[in-house]
Amino acid sequence: MRKQLMKGNEAIVRSAILAGCRAFYGYPITPASEITEAAAEFLPRVGGVFLQAESEVAAINMLYGASSAGVRAMTASSGPGISLMQEGISYMAGAELPCVIADITRGGPGLGNIAAEQSDYHQVVKGGGNGSYHTLVLAPSSAQEMADLTALAFELADRYRNPVVVLADGFVGQMMEPVEFPQRATAPQTPAWAVTGTAESRGNLITSLHMGSDELEAHIQHLESKYRRAEREEARAEDWRTGDAEIVLVGYGIVGRILKAVTAEARAEGIPVGLLRPITLYPFPTRNFQRLVPRARVFLVVEMSNGQLVEDVRLALNGARPVEFFGRMGGNVPSHGEVLALVRRLARQYGVVMEREEERMAHV
Amino acid sequence: MSSEFISEYEVIHAKPKAFYETYARKDELQHQTHYCPGCGHGTIHKMLAQAMDEFGIKDRTILISPVGCSVFAYYYFDVGNVQAAHGRASAVATAVKRSRPESIVISYQGDGDLAAIGSAEILHAANRGEPIAVIFVNNAIYSMTGGQFAPTTLIGQKSTTTPGGRSAIHEGYPLHVSELLATLEAPMYIERVGLGDNRQIAQASRAIRRAVENQVRGLGFSFIEVLSPCPTIWRLSPVESQRWVREVMEKTYPLAVFRDRTKDAQPRPMPQEPPALDTIPQIIGVANGDVPEDSAIRHEPVTDVDLHVRVAGFGGQGVLLLGEVLAEAGLDAGLEVSWLPSYGPEMRSGTSNCHVRLSREPIDSPLVTAPNVLVAMNEPSLKKFDKSVQARGWVIYNGDAFPPECVREDVHVLALPFTQIADALGDARAANMVMLGALLEIADALPQTSVDAALRRLVKNPRFFELDERALARGRELYRESVREVCHAG
Amino acid sequence: MNAEKRDRGLLRVDGNECKGCGLCVEACPPKVIAMSERLNHYGYRTATYVGAGCTGCGICFMVCPEPGAITVLRAMAQRSAAGSGVTMGTEGAMPCASN
Ligand code: SF4
Ligand code: SF4
Ligand code: SF4
Ligand SMILES: [Mg+2]
Hints:
The complex is a heterotrimer.
Chain A: E1 4-7, H1 8-18, E2 23-26, H2 33-42, E3 49-52, H3 56-68, E4 73-77, H4 79-95, E5 99-107, E6 113-116, H5 121-125, E7 136-138, H6 143-160, E8 163-169, H7 170-174, E9 176-179, E10 205-206, H8 213-233, E11 237-240, E12 247-250, H9 254-268, E13 273-278, E14 280-282, H10 286-292, E15 298-303, H11 309-317, E16 323-327, H12 336-349, H13 357-363
Parallel strand pairs in A: 2-3, 2-4, 4-5, 5-8, 7-8, 12-13, 12-15, 15-16
Antiparallel strand pairs in A: 1-9, 5-6, 7-14, 11-13
Helix pairs in contact in A: 1-2, 1-6, 3-4, 9-12, 10-11
Chain B: H1 3-8, E1 9-13, H2 40-55, E2 61-65, E3 80-83, H3 89-99, E4 104-110, H4 111-117, H5 119-127, E5 133-138, H6 168-171, H7 177-181, E6 189-194, H8 198-216, E7 222-227, H9 231-234, H10 238-252, E8 256-260, H11 280-283, E9 306-314, H12 319-332, E10 336-341, E11 351-359, E12 373-376, H13 379-385, E13 394-398, E14 412-416, H14 418-425, H15 431-443, H16 448-458, H17 462-489
Parallel strand pairs in B: 2-3, 2-4, 4-5, 5-7, 6-7, 9-12, 12-13, 13-14
Antiparallel strand pairs in B: 6-8, 9-11, 10-11
Helix pairs in contact in B: 2-8, 4-5, 12-15, 12-16, 14-15, 15-17
Chain C: E1 9-13, H1 23-27, E2 33-39, E3 45-49, H2 59-63, E4 70-75, H3 79-82
Antiparallel strand pairs in C: 1-4, 2-3
The complex binds iron/sulfur cluster (SF4) (3 copies) and magnesium ion (MG).
């Protein structure tokens, strides 16, 4: 099949529609606006609802309504808008409402700038809203993954009755790459718990309110059991040349792509480097990290932030190996050169055994 | 009571069927509400439930409960229930109604909820004319949280956060929500009623019924504000509270119909049937049939290629399109490609640039920090990126005088006045395509048929298509000529 | 029972649901509701029908904040008179504006 050259942001909307999304409530913000614009163009044509809300607060609460009514719903925003949505995300997690939220991260804090950063990690992965909850978080690094992980996001959202965030940076949103779509649109069943204005659904109630302390505790424990299941079943990462890696590069989204190029270059120099790219940020692919401990001497986490993912990497390794960090911010991108220089330094510092020429040739 | 007795009388007013028989969601006292004695909420609930009974809509109704004393409205109404965040009920109701247009959606909100934290949501729901019914219970105070000031608190009225009474200087004036919404075009019906005496109560009941009826008829946004007693926070007896509604509150909030456009209103059109599922890939432009087949299969396989291209210039010089045609052509030729527009700090001051990769192998990084071809459409762009060009790479520069400080021993340069050349072809804006033509000739990686196919996809206007084709050909020719010259010179 | 003497309406108060707010007492046009001397299970004095004079107007029902506290009944039409079970004015869900 012929692939189409398409922006990641446009791929998200097409994929969402094929996955049965029929409601999009949004509010424009750079660099996520193409998603909202594409939704405005296509959702009405497929019998869906598009509405530009008066604020991100309203948009996420509209998602709450659409999802309560049993419709697959999504929104898209970026840093400051996601901050405003945290209220609704907490309510949806509490009320066990599925939805998909695309966060095309820009620079912060505050107004920051519109350049690509990865500084929404904390507010998205750790949950910026109140209460004991998690969102599931998927981190695409290509236009194709924007499509594929959006489809997965809808599936997971329904399976876990929980908000799922597709966390991408401005680059992944803005860049065009060939994308391939499934040729079948799915028509999800209306969930039995939804409130749809019918006799069968009349007894249903959507709420995040649990007045009794035991009742609320039991509810949170129920949510926790879902998160434990997700941790067992849904964690994903891309391992690339990690089998014999003594230096493991770690990065998600666009940084994962840069690190792949660095890995190739470092290998060409004989440094046994591998790439571990988390695809799910929650649940965190802890086991993928632990598997590499016996061979790895050091992990290098590269981010377009002040170091947010690195905290989860440290937790996952639990002190078993040193974790180094390199971050660029403000829209600056870690360059191959910078990272490669760092990799060379780490190779010396940690006494990494260089590959012999014949080993190297075997990989080529 | 004897059976004889019952047979002579029949029940005419009893607990409406839209209420649950017993309030099983309440953990104790499941036969009565949680409201204080004399609270207006229970009365309003009853009016609403009666209207639901009357129109037979219990199965179709979805009630949105707010945050406030009526947060537990879902304890009582035997309908579909959704409990919303503080102030957001009208946003939630908006989406519920749009998702389920056949349902009857009622947003039930208090004055803290609707008039303060939810003021944006109600204003915009009203302004969009959402075909829902909003019941706005105004008791001039935050009740559930213990009696704090609300936007609706009367001048002089004491609250725990206006201990000296509301002052206009400090807190402004009571917010007249009904009047405010009545300035909007879209609302269908707006009325303020009270629970101050029997007559008011009778009117309140009619108004609520009206709001429900409007929705049953498929009309637009209906809003009923109810001045409602809160004996507990007001520290008045239920009977005194009624009097306070009638004698004090009503002076600030006159009872009236502020909007009634129901008479000649036509039902809003129902959404059309959604298209068949199998047509959806086509509607969103991803069906196989819509996507042109690879024309690559018609060509000889292209030579090995690993292009890292950076295109830079000013906005309006066609920088992004140049890159896009290149990427599309690469895709058409069966290569792996990526295109990344300039983004972030680089975008300042009207400059524009993009990164393009074409390769046989999967593209690792789409960011081109060390290009093997730099297309610089002006001098600032050249000076910005010339140092980054890989050794043995190419610089295609728009300008005949290549700045001496940019000369490097280890890179090839093709410097020509592309803008003038394009102008001679008929349009200076085609300079980007002349430069692309030169690039294609240099890279010698893509069949012209793939370039044609890409151009056809991206340039729909036949006049520009024809111009761009000539520009591309001219660019190829210019490179070939330059090589001949070099050979001669050599 | 003699039709001429029979009251047009009849009030029933559920003593478990009534919260004793007294609004019905205030609202009843012929003043045929009073507060009980005895406290109910929850410590409220409850509304009680004085036993005669109810017109079946339904006002007490409408003002009462408790959904199930009050039931109002109305005398059925004389079977002998109309020869049918047709009842009087059941459409009067709204309290008549009698005050
Ligand atoms: S505090 Fe006021 S509004 Fe709340 S239940 Fe009591 S009387 Fe009603
Ligand atoms: S129905 Fe009318 S007359 Fe009878 S008790 Fe109630 S308010 Fe009084
Ligand atoms: S109005 Fe209702 S709750 Fe109040 S006293 Fe009368 S019956 Fe009881
Ligand atoms: Mg209030």
